[in-house]
């Protein structure tokens, strides 16, 4: 492959990565809004509130990781080499942020699902 073809492939991969990060951050933010909307309709006291708190913390961490991921992808290429590390280190940070984003989103949705199931099972008949 020529350098031009590699640049096109890299540009396409970065475009897809940005799209995925935007979608995940939108889903996480939507989940937070949905929880905030319907939480006041739950009977008090809230059953298994620690699952809800865990979910909210994970979803907030997911949004923060998405923000940092998108910020690092938006850094112009001449900054990549001026930040003091190598390009390989730069991509390691991006990979780590991607893993944090996916892990916290999945953990947040899992905790929210457990909270919902426990809430349904714990509701008075």
Output the keywords.
125 residues; mainly alpha; 0% strand; elongated
Q: Considering DSSP H and I runs of 4 or more, what fraction of the residues is helical?
A: over 70%
Order of helices and strands: HHHH
Biggest β-sheet description = none
Task: Let me know the average pLDDT.
Answer: 84
Class computed from helices, strands and strand pairing: mainly alpha
Distance between the termini: 66 Å
Q: Helical region count?
A: 4
Pick out the low-confidence regions. none
DSSP strand content: under 5%
Total number of strands? 0
What radius of gyration results from the CA coordinates?
Answer: 19 Å
Q: What does the overall shape look like?
A: elongated
Describe the structure.
It is elongated, with a radius of gyration of 19 Å. By secondary structure, the protein is mainly α. It contains four helices and no strands.
SSE blueprint:
Layout: H1 3-39, H2 49-74, H3 77-82, H4 87-122
Summarize this entry quickly.
This protein is mostly helical and about 120 residues long. It has helices at about 5-40, 50-75, 75-80, 85-120.
């Amino acid at each position: 492959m020529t350098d031009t073809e590699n640049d096109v492939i890299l540009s396409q991969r970065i475009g897809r990565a940005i799209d995925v990060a935007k979608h995940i951050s939108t889903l996480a933010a939507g989940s937070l809004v949905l929880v905030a909307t319907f939480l006041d309709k739950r009977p008090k006291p809230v059953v298994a509130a620690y699952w809800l708190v865990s979910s909210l913390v994970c979803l907030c961490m997911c949004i923060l990781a998405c923000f940092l991921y998108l910020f690092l992808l938006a850094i112009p290429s001449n900054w990549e080499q001026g930040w003091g590390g190598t390009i390989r280190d730069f991509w390691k940070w991006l990979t780590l942020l991607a893993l944090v984003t996916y892990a916290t989103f999945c953990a947040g949705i899992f905790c929210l699902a457990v909270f919902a199931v426990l809430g349904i099972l714990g509701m008075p008949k």
